[in-house]
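FAQ: What does the model actually see?

It sees only this:
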Amino acid sequence: MKLRFYGADRAVTGSCHCVEINGKRILVDCGLQQGRDELEENALPFAAGGVDAVVLTHAHVDHSGRLPLLVKNGFGGKIFCTRLTGELLGIMLRDAAHIQESDAEYVNRKGQRAGRSPVEPLYSLRDAEAALERLVCVEYGQEFSPAEGIRARFADAGHLLGSAYAEVWAAEEGETKKLVFSGDIGNVDQPVIRDPSFLTEADFVVMESTYGDREHDESERYDRVTALAEVIERTIRRGGNVVIPSFAVGRTQELLYIIREIKERGLVTYNPHFRVCVDSPLAREATRIYAGDLAGYVDPDAEELRIGGVKMFEFEGLELVTTTDDSKALNFDPEPKVILSASGMCDAGRIRHHLKYNLWRPNSSIVFVGYQAQGSLGRRILDGATEVKLFGEDVAVRAEIVRLPGMSSHADRSHLLDWIGHFSPRPAHVFVVHGDAEVAPGFAQELEREGFSAHAPKYCEEYDLLLGRVTREGVEPEKPKQPAAGGFKDSPAFTALVELGQKLLEVIRHNRGGANRDLKKFGAEIQKLIDKWDR
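And it is asked to produce this:
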């Protein structure tokens, strides 16, 4: 009876864990590694054909985004998830496949002119469709058997619509062990979704630690509805736009829920009929799912509205923007409005166009409602940048910059400790995952001080659940083991970047003997690039 760790080990993306019982292998999550967490170009460090089933905690791509790759590489089993996770997965995996195909097309278009060999996307839309065909959707509390000798069920994790903890009972050699996989544990008092539930029994717990080193500021326990209404009121009075970078799935729908209440309560008096434009194809599809059958998935307030026939995410003045032309037209329409657009950290998507046309306007407001990672455009704006570059142009930051706190979808340190503290008796061991390289080990040490047996496993570590010890050491995230011979292979994007660097050196040499004024200008432009990208 083995437990192996194949992702989000001392990292915050790419969740993937494997339970092996009686020769059967069950994956819990198969997420996409993103940003600095990416290892080996997202290659799977195991044989996909040897996996018998997948138990999926929720639809976010850092937990689900490699399912199409799993199928592409030979997986032929079933993928178990909650009903609404399955619905969200339908749009998110297709969107992820589109991004993979578009990125490969872009690299190949550039590479063809340079004589480079074409690259393939990590997976295609066809692979995503094949993964979706393997879904088996169940409800919270409904027991199922992903493989012989294994029972499982889901409990509400309160992180995203349909998100779940996975309870797994495994029997081998006459012994039965219960494992709990937390997935992502949600925050409390969030719109629409229920607070995280508590579990009380487990032999082993695999738990996340995203916010294991920090607390949500107590000042964030405030009236979000009134706070957002005040921003909208003063911005519309100035004749500007309220631009809100927002993640397409979950956060956008929470904002629509809040804005509906703002309108119903008449909290914006200057123009109670203000327009709200959702400019994200993925958000539009997600909103359609949020407006569907939510029975058994939402908090008491939302349930009361649902039973009463209230359309929680619809109101007068709401526009779901469809085409690129319609999106562009928003920036040439002088009427003050609220614009919700992805991505939430401003590093991609249509939001960048809206920032280009609104950041420099003193009468507009940019409202941040989610975490902004170090190095992201959103973080630079929040940290006080006076100028940013968008689409090759310098754009002054003169708009009002607002942070609307209290909307994190992750439990903080105290709530994580409260969650694990409900297990009685204490689990034999707690595996701390889904936290940065410094955070996960630190939170494991915190659990040790609280009297738990705990550690933060490393990538590809193996633990024998019957023997109660590590049987194969893992590796640090910076130095992953390779799944196949041949050494580490640089990504096509990095290879192209190195080639551009070599061309830049050639251009520098060609300018030898040039006018000092031109050389200084050239050097200043290079220094700007260095300052931007030397992270």
